[in-house]
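Researcher: I need the complex structure. Ligand is magnesium ion. Inputs:
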Amino acid sequence: MAQEAIDARVTALPAELQPLERCIGQTLRQDVYAERDNPPFDRVCMDGIAVASTAMARGVRRYPVEATQAAGSPALILSSAESVIEVMTGAMLPRGADCVIPLEEYDLREGVVSLKGEVNGEAYRNVQRRGSDSQPGVPMLRAGMRLGAPEIAVVASAGLAEVQVSRQPRFMVISTGDELVEPGQPIAEHQVRRSNAYAVVAALRGHGFTHVLNDHLLDDARMLSDRLGRHLSQHDVLILSGGVSKGKFDLVPKVLKELRVEEVFYQVAQRPGMPMWFGVGPSGQAVFGLPGNPVSTLVCLIRYVLPAMTTAMGARRAAPEPVAMASPVQSRRSAAYFLPVALRYDDLGRPLAEARFPRGSGDFLALTEADGFVELPPRAEAFPEGYLASFYRW
Ligand code: AMP
Ligand code: MG
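Model: Output:
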């Protein structure tokens, strides 16, 4: 429900042309068509000799070598079916020849080839036919794919030096709270390390986002208003942690409203992460107010923000993986339950989710032992062992 509300309001990022070497991990925003036949010619796929299959069928066993055809040269012409041309892997098949005999199957002495034993001389043996992999005009890649190494190879093979990809969202990660102190700085008993900002930035960078800045704001209406106003004007997505609960100093929802950020929802029936806030800025900026408790922050980021950004970039979103619970788990009657889990594998290699209960939503040490978390829907009865839950990896 929260996810649908976010999806309905997140604006699509524009596409932009990027040089191919900057495209790894990016989301493709155009279809990519084959430039020409692939292979573009009848291609020799063994080092050996090119012969005419008709001569092989007639039982000819000795052939003079006319010439050598290397890869990267235009096709030679086999002038007589009684002779052969030496060929290299990747070369064009010489015209007049239609079969390649690999070099293990003949002896070559003084320019004459003698076949050894039984040799298969059928037409197009060891030849990849022109157009057998793909033909021009056929889409090889579709918009919405993520460009990994194989996809980059396909784009290059299509002759494109640049390709349309989604523009990277510009993220501003903002921690809020008077109690928070930067790592590396001295800390007093009443203070807390500003770890959420680091976790959120790390998760975003780890998922391939490149434009990620961060800031820290005090629980002060004036400061929040000034700086959030500036961040809204410079970024596509604001991810705040803290300051969204109902405490006296939880000023974030009120300040955002004053900045004309429309509240789409406030509070979600989930544990942890109940106080989560989401809104849309005056020019379509997505603003996520995540609860400050470290477990809540990370869970909400992975569960809601990352999928929403996948959609905003025009990428296909994979459904969360179903994973069987390794043992029964108590349910929450009226809230979705996000439970950190470690994966182990049964005898058949199937994943099982073992609960790693945090001792509270501040216990992020428990998360280091988990591979991610499962989402357990609200219901009265407990979840049995083997229950298939949606799994989200960190
Ligand atoms: P809040 O949502 O602001 O009420 O914060 C809830 C709890 O999370 C408090 O105990 C905060 O100290 C803690 N917290 C808030 N922000 C952070 C942060 N960036 N890093 C670590 N803990 C935080
Ligand atoms: Mg706070």
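Model: Summary of the prediction. DSSP finds seven helices and 26 strands in the chain.
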